[in-house]
Design goal:
This protein is mainly alpha-helical. Helix content is about 95%, strand content about 0%.
């Protein structure tokens, strides 16, 4: 039981440290993803309008 608790604690610590380090890159990646989605949506609307003229 002690060994598994230590394993869980090490795993949780690894997740927390990786999470705090990954917040910056994750935030930037999310922002980039949103911008990409907006660009794709605009492109799709433009193509739709051109096709239906």
């Amino acid at each position: 039981m002690d060994k598994t608790q230590a394993g869980y604690r090490a795993f949780a610590t690894r997740i927390v440290t990786r999470g705090t380090m990954g917040i910056e890159t994750g935030h930037l990646r999310a922002k980039h993803g949103v911008e990409k989605a907006v660009i794709l949506t605009v492109a799709a609307v433009v193509l739709f309008l051109i096709a239906h003229r």
